[in-house]
Amino acid sequence: MKFYFIFFLISFSRILSQPWADHGKIIVNPKNPHYLAHEDGTNFFYLGDTAWELFFRLNREEADIYLKDRAEKNFNVIQAVVLSEWSNLIFPNVYGDFPFTNGSSMKPNVTNGNDPADSVMYDFWDNVDYIIEKAEELNLYIGILPCWGEYVIARNGKPFFNTAEEIYSYGNYLGKRYAQQPNLIWILGGDRQPDERDNGIELWRAMAEGIADGVNGIYKQDGDADYSSTLMTHHSYNSSSNWFHEDAWIDFHTYGSYHSNYGDDRSYLLAEKDWSLKNPKPTINSEPAYEGHPLNWIKDNGIFTAYDVRQIAYWSVFAGAAGYTYGAHSIWQFYNPKYEKISMVELTWQKALNMAGAVQIKYLKELINSRPIENLRPDQTLIADKVTYNYSRVCAVRSDDYAYIYIPTGISTNVDLTMFEGEKITAEWFNPRTGELSFIGNFSNKKVHLFDPPGMSKELSWLQTGRGCDWVLVLSKL
Q: What is the per-residue burial (b if ≥16 Cβ within 10 Å, else e) of 168-191?
């Protein structure tokens, strides 16, 4: 009896510690609609990891390893695609299973039972179930893409979904199957811009309606649905605000700065654009440059490093984004030697788990969550120097009582302290490589002050400027 009581307490404690149980579902922050929050007002900073091929390429034991690692590194959203980008329904998942019977989107391939020891009983959807439920155990949300954009907006052949009825039906199946899962964030799209196809916008709207109706136990394709039970967005190169800003189904926007070059200004320009919209919604850079990915897919151009991860992340968030999605080139595709390499990947996914960017990105989440965000907003007027639009651009975000200023290349920066009320300002350096704070001093807020960032580290104190010498200046009103 004692054993069962202890087990009950452990299980009960784990349930109570889950964010959806403790704080309620994720909503748009009612006090600052540029950000996300839980129903009880707790801030929700979206820190995603890119795991597109998770449902397809990992078995249960491997998924356990990956999800546990990401939970330990303080990620809270795992972005994964149900209908794989690379299988194109030609190749089965790791267990040899396909999602549909005879390739028909109206006929999910579902068997009786879900025993993983029985290869006939354990089907494609059972494996998706397992991964979603495992993520739930680890307090992780799954940013679930019903399919990659190619299935709707085809660039390489014929699309899989061609009518609103087909895509509504598929969305409804998913919504109904996962109606009771508290840890899902629905992400429609997948690279392709919805207007690349004449009826593309119509099809994505039909999928959103199908998902919501399925969650609500309804099958009625009539162009109307109750979206209060879902949290949805759309993923592509440009922000979803370009097409869906006024749609009832979309709760927040995403965009991607992608993988073309160092210091891509789209990281902050698209966040700034969405911030300025009438009736704003949160926005997130959900596909930035992946760590270990070659620039513009050409290895000789160079490889994105942890520094690029940090620069894009801080640029995006300090320009107004409500979160950020990290990506590692080896992990999104879960590369191992039995699979063909995609775009010159070098490490297996297991070796890539501890890439520096994956370890460091949590410090941004911790920094944003350390203080209230009700009045947080981008404010470049804090920067007294001429604003530059290149890889050295300094980016600032502030509340009424504090400010964060990201200096990506260690250059000396003039800051207008008169922007704060009161008499004194406390200044500190925040190290985005380690999460450590170091005190600078107290300053009068009656003038402009020049701040000179320290060296990259104690061992490299002489290295003060250039790639990798990034710092965050933290200002607090006394």
A: bbbbbbbbbbbeebebbbbbbbbb
As a whole number of angstroms, the distance between CA 409 and CA 437 comes to: 18
The full DSSP string for 218-243 is ----SS----TT--EEEESSS-THHH
pLDDT greater than 60 at residue 9: no
- Which structural domain, as residue segments, surrounds residue 388? 379-477
Tell me the mean pLDDT in the region 342-367.
Answer: 96
Q: How far is CA 211 from CA 204, 217, 260, in A?
A: 11, 10, 33
For 354, list phi and psi in degrees, rounded to 5: -105, 30
pLDDT at 41 over 90: yes
* Shared-domain flag, residues 329 and 469: no
Q: Tell me what the mean pLDDT of segment 361-366 comes to.
A: 98
Judge whether 311 and 467 are in contact, CB under 8 Å.
Answer: no
Q: How confident is the model at residue 77 (pLDDT cuts 50, 70, 90)?
A: very high
The one-character DSSP state at 123 is: -
Paired tokens of 318? 């300090």
Residues 327 and 421 in one domain: no
DSSP tag of 44? E
**Cα torsion through 312, 317, 323, 324, rounded to 10:** 0
User: Quick count: other Cβ atoms within 10 Å of Cβ 247?
Assistant: 16
The CATH number of the domain holding residue 446 is: 2.60.40
Nearest CA to 235 out of 297, 158, 288, 278 is that of 288
Is residue 37 assigned to a domain?
Answer: yes
In degrees rounded to 5, what are phi and psi of residue 434? -125, -15
Provide the mean pLDDT of the chain.
94
Residues 277, 175 within the same domain: yes
pLDDT at residue number 389: 73
Is the distance from CB of 405 to CB of 415 less than 8 angstroms? yes
What's the burial of 452, exposed, middle or buried (CB within 10 Å: 0-12/13-18/19+)?
Answer: exposed
Structural domains in the chain (count): 2
pLDDT tens readout for residues 81-95: 999 988 889 999 999
Q: What is the structure's pLDDT at 131? A: 98
| H helix or E strand, kind and range, residue 425 | strand 424-430
What is the model's pTM? 0.95
The amino acid sitting at 285 is N
Q: Does pLDDT of 165 surpass 80?
A: yes
pLDDT digits (tens, 9 = 90+) for 249-304: 999 999 999 999 999 999 999 999 999 999 999 999 999 999 999 999 998 899 99
Cα separations in angstroms, 250 against 33, 187, 241: 13, 10, 9
